[in-house]
């Protein structure tokens, strides 16, 4: 019964539609039915499509990432052989783009495996290009293996060699690195990348290797300054770490006595000498004499004696003494000997290198909470009263702190320990009245109250401004629609006009001899409507013109000028 009533209602609605509306509804229904048929037929059809290669020759890490993605998306896949992943061929291009958007695979560069397959027809130029491409790929993989690097790209410009040195152009290289979030490349790492790239290319110097990050900022252009800044940062970090370590030692030492770590404040300042020094000391010991070298010299001479010069002029003086005249044998003998000994005095040479980072002075200042004793005040109530430490107790604490942090009086170190009533600050900070407590409680929720106030302001603005404006706009639109409809309605009060039209119709039928043929009711209504529109145009031409202007504006979307 309900279905019958529903069909009757649909039939009544359909009978009230004109021809144009019926065509539009029928066309819409046909399109919807065809669309649903298409979805049912093609989405439910299981096609045995061929599989295509998604990626091959990737490392195990990339293969694992790809398989995780395919399992997550529930995409069928198969692995026909090692390092090859296949999926349905119609989805290969789409999934490659999707994986590339996720940064997979990470190692897409080709290395020296490009030479695994030999091409007989390859020319020398082709082999050189392959070698350059393989070198770039291997360098990229090596740089990406560094901890701060997420992704890298290497381009090498290796010009053709020239026979003349003056016209030869050295090779250059460009490296783009994408650093991991939160990481940073140090100057030493930048220098290492430059040396790595330059060592892989003949005649390439580190100065001709340029490195930029993913934002296009150059890296390592001022190595000396960057290196100095890096050293200063390391020195500052080292000093700060040592100061914090000694301060923590003091707090850990005194916190049991003070009643907790919050009752001890320790500040330590250290001065370090980071200059590099070398000392050489040489000591000589004269008591330790060691022979280093010895030389013995002996000389023996046998012959006539020395010629005497002078005497009486004559033959004997000119020709010399006659042999065997003055000496019995006429011969002389001469013996000479010499011994030279080179001794070396014992010495000791001591060479000392002082490592940078030697502490030259230390100062420490410590505040510790004093003791609290239970006493009775004037009213007879028991209260805690602060009792400062005695000088002997302070001196003992200073000695303990000195021993804990490595005090050295020869360096001019200084350690000061003072007691302080920490509970005084707590009493000053604690709210004493209800108003102060309420203020402290409200202060905790001030950040949340700001958002609540903003939400209330937005709600009031909506209720007072936006909602009334929208209602007025809707009322104006309804009024204009009613005005337009009233112009095209045939009221029941127009009986006179209808009867006059009926008389006119009868006279025309009689004159044309069409009595009995008659006019349709729709045509009569149409004629009545035209007559009413003519009368309205003659009565209110300006309003009708404004109405048609608005209708044209709504139809074509052009601005209109309102007429007064």
TrEMBL record:
<keyword id="KW-1133">Transmembrane helix</keyword>
<feature type="compositionally biased region" description="Basic and acidic residues">
    <location>
        <begin position="299"/>
        <end position="309"/>
    </location>
</feature>
<keyword id="KW-0472">Membrane</keyword>
<feature type="region of interest" description="Disordered">
    <location>
        <begin position="299"/>
        <end position="334"/>
    </location>
</feature>
<dbReference type="Pfam" id="PF08345">
    <property type="entry name" value="YscJ_FliF_C"/>
</dbReference>
<dbReference type="Pfam" id="PF01514">
    <property type="entry name" value="YscJ_FliF"/>
</dbReference>
<protein>
    <recommendedName>
        <fullName>Flagellar M-ring protein</fullName>
    </recommendedName>
</protein>
<feature type="domain" description="Flagellar M-ring C-terminal">
    <location>
        <begin position="260"/>
        <end position="422"/>
    </location>
</feature>
<dbReference type="InterPro" id="IPR013556">
    <property type="entry name" value="Flag_M-ring_C"/>
</dbReference>
<keyword id="KW-0975">Bacterial flagellum</keyword>
<dbReference type="GO" id="GO:0003774">
    <property type="term" value="F:cytoskeletal motor activity"/>
</dbReference>
<dbReference type="InterPro" id="IPR043427">
    <property type="entry name" value="YscJ/FliF"/>
</dbReference>
<dbReference type="InterPro" id="IPR045851">
    <property type="entry name" value="AMP-bd_C_sf"/>
</dbReference>
<keyword id="KW-0966">Cell projection</keyword>
<keyword id="KW-1003">Cell membrane</keyword>
<feature type="transmembrane region" description="Helical">
    <location>
        <begin position="23"/>
        <end position="42"/>
    </location>
</feature>
<dbReference type="GO" id="GO:0005886">
    <property type="term" value="C:plasma membrane"/>
</dbReference>
<dbReference type="InterPro" id="IPR000067">
    <property type="entry name" value="FlgMring_FliF"/>
</dbReference>
<keyword id="KW-0812">Transmembrane</keyword>
<keyword id="KW-0969">Cilium</keyword>
<feature type="domain" description="Flagellar M-ring N-terminal">
    <location>
        <begin position="47"/>
        <end position="219"/>
    </location>
</feature>
<dbReference type="InterPro" id="IPR006182">
    <property type="entry name" value="FliF_N_dom"/>
</dbReference>
<dbReference type="GO" id="GO:0071973">
    <property type="term" value="P:bacterial-type flagellum-dependent cell motility"/>
</dbReference>
<dbReference type="GO" id="GO:0009431">
    <property type="term" value="C:bacterial-type flagellum basal body, MS ring"/>
</dbReference>
<comment type="function">
    <text>The M ring may be actively involved in energy transduction.</text>
</comment>
<comment type="similarity">
    <text>Belongs to the FliF family.</text>
</comment>
<keyword id="KW-0282">Flagellum</keyword>
<feature type="transmembrane region" description="Helical">
    <location>
        <begin position="442"/>
        <end position="462"/>
    </location>
</feature>
């Amino acid at each position: 019964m309900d279905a019958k009533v529903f069909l009757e209602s649909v039939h009544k609605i359909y009978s009230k539609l004109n021809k144009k509306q019926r065509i539009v509804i029928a066309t819409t229904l046909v399109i919807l039915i065809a669309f649903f048929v298409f979805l049912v037929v093609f989405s439910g059809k299981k096609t045995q499509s061929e599989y295509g290669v998604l990626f091959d020759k990737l490392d195990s890490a990339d293969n694992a990432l790809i398989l995780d993605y395919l399992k997550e998306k529930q995409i069928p896949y198969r692995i026909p052989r090692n390092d090859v992943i296949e999926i349905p061929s119609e989805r290969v291009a789409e999934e490659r783009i999707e994986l590339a958007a996720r940064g997979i695979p990470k190692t897409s560069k080709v290395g020296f495996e490009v030479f695994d397959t030999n091409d007989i027809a390859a020319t020398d130029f082709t082999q050189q290009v392959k070698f350059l491409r393989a070198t770039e790929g291997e360098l990229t993989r090596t740089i990406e293996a560094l901890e701060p690097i997420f992704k890298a790209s290497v381009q090498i410009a290796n010009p053709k060699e020239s026979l003349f040195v003056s016209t030869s152009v050295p090779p250059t290289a460009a490296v783009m690195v994408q650093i991991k979030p939160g990481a940073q490349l140090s100057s030493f790492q930048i220098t290492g990348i430059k040396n790595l790239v330059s060592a892989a290319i003949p005649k390439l110097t580190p100065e001709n290797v340029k490195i930029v990050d993913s934002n296009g900022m150059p890296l390592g252009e001022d190595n000396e300054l960057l290196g100095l800044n890096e050293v200063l940062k390391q020195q500052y970090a080292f000093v700060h770490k040592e100061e914090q370590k000694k301060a923590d030692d003091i707090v850990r030492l005194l916190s049991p006595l003070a009643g907790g770590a919050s009752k001890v404040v320790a500040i330590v300042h250290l001065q370090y000498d980071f200059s590099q020094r070398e000392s050489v000391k040489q000591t000589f010991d004269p008591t330790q004499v060691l022979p280093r070298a010895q030389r013995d010299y002996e000389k023996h001479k046998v012959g006539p004696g020395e010629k005497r010069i002078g005497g009486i002029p004559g033959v004997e003086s000119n020709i010399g003494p006659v042999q065997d005249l003055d000496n019995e044998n006429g011969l002389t003998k001469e013996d000479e000997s010499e011994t030279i000994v080179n001794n070396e005095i014992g010495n000791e040479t001591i060479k000392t290198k002082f490592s940078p980072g030697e502490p030259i002075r230390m100062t420490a200042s410590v505040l510790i909470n004093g003791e609290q004793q239970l006493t009775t005040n004037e009213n007879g109530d028991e209260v805690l009263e602060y009792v400062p430490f005695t000088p002997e107790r302070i001196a003992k604490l200073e000695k303990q702190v000195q021993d804990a942090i490595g005090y050295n009086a020869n360096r001019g170190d200084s350690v000061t320990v003072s007691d302080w009533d920490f509970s005084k600050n707590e009493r000053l900070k604690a709210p004493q009245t209800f108003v102060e407590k309420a203020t402290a409680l409200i202060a905790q929720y001030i950040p949340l109250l700001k958002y609540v106030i903003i939400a209330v302001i937005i709600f009031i603005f909506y209720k007072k401004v936006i909602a009334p404006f929208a209602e007025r706009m809707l009322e104006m639109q309804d009024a204009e629609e009613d005005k337009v409809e009233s112009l095209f309605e045939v009221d029941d009060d127009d009986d006179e006009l209808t009867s006059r039209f009926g008389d006119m119709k009868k006279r025309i039928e009689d004159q044309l001899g069409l009595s009995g043929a008659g006019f349709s009711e729709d045509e009569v209504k149409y004629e009545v409507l035209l007559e009413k529109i003519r009368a309205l145009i003659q009565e209110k031409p300006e309003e009708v013109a404004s109405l048609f202007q608005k209708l044209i504006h709504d139809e074509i979307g052009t601005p209109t000028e309102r007429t007064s």
